Amino acid sequence: MVDTMALLHAFTRATRLHGRTTGALPLVPAVLPADDDVLLDAPDDMLGPALVGAAGGDHAPAVALLAATRSTGAWELRDRYVRRLAAFARSRPEWLDTWRALAPRDPDGLLVDAQRAVDRAWDSPARAELLREVSPLITAAARADGRDPVPWRLALDHARGARAGHRYFEELWEAAVRRAPHHHGCHVAALRYLASSWHGSHRECFDFADLAAQDAPEDSLTQALPLRAAFGYLTDGCGPGVEPERLQAAADRAVALSARLPAGHVRPAELRNLLTWVLIRLHRWQDALEQLRLTGPYATSFPWDRDADDPLGRFLQVRQAVREAVAAGPPAAAATAPAPAPEGPRGGRSGRLFPGDH
């Protein structure tokens, strides 16, 4: 039997931050789905048939799905679907290999194949060398449809793994945001590059994330980019500290975004899982419980796989610990939380990345 309060205390270990609540939440018990009803990384209604078809060796549903995202300019969905289809193709490649053989210049097949190749290289000890070999495939995917920002998100990830220089990365970044100024995946890729290039420069990451969020439309996932910066800070023990107010503000912005998105829906699930993780670290137990309510039955591997081989089991354990902490009240919920972190170069805007820092 898991000691859920001990689990929660371990999960929130480090220096003390005072928890708070937004004040807008009703202090009533949240009704959450039963453990047996919770799903891990569930596909939405559009992706599900494509994965079922691929499992049977039929690439036609995936072809139709990605062609629709391209024709309608649904770039956020396209990015999500490309990642999931590429991950599926790593273990079940026949459908994608057939697709590529029958239509070698198809923009959608090229893109899924390029994502699969980057994912494979990323897991190898020879990552940088293998990623260089993948470059022509990414270039082909980018040239196949000049409007599509997703190949450029992939190029940004590729550049980080290949340890590309700042000037080259900035050129990729500018090409990406010309196509979709607020594309969430491209912004996350830029934030990760910024964090890895200047390890510990969390204030720089927050500067970039805050400016991007301020520029983004109200319903854009890029509104939650500061939450990603907070997660990076809370999972990194290096450098000088970030002001607690910045962490709280990042969580507040993500809470506001979550409230504008449909409850119990699979598409905002990763946002809400990550937000729950951060709220726990900030000791905002009631807010965390509210995000678990809004999440419904949709657990996501990220961020729970960061410290657990069984992300679904980890999600369920933490969910129970949050429920118990809220039920017990503030004294029992008192624990320890985040750790200090760092400083670095100057920040960029949503449309410009670290100008002058080369």
Secondary-structure map:
Layout: H1 4-11, E1 39-40, H2 47-55, H3 60-72, H4 75-91, H5 94-102, H6 107-122, H7 127-144, H8 150-161, H9 166-179, H10 184-197, H11 202-215, H12 225-234, H13 244-260, H14 269-281, H15 285-295, E2 298-299, H16 301-304, H17 311-328, H18 330-333
Describe the structure.
- With 358 residues, the chain is mostly helical.
- The protein has a domain of 112 residues.
- Helices cover 62% and strands 1% of the residues.
- It has a two-stranded parallel ribbon.
- Helix 15 crosses helix 17.
Index terms:
single chain, 358 residues, mainly alpha
- Strand tally, please? 2
Beta-strand residue percentage? under 5%
Would you list the SSEs in sequence order as H and E? HEHHHHHHHHHHHHHHEHHH
- Ranges where pLDDT stays below 50 over 5 or more residues in a row are 1-18, 332-358
Sheet with most strands: strand arrangement:
1-2
Number of DSSP helical runs:
18
Quaternary state reads single chain
Radius of gyration: 21 Å
Task: Tell me roughly what share of residues is in helical segments.
Answer: 55-70%
Structural class: mainly alpha
Q: What composes the largest sheet?
A: 2 strands, parallel
Q: What value does the average pLDDT take? A: 86
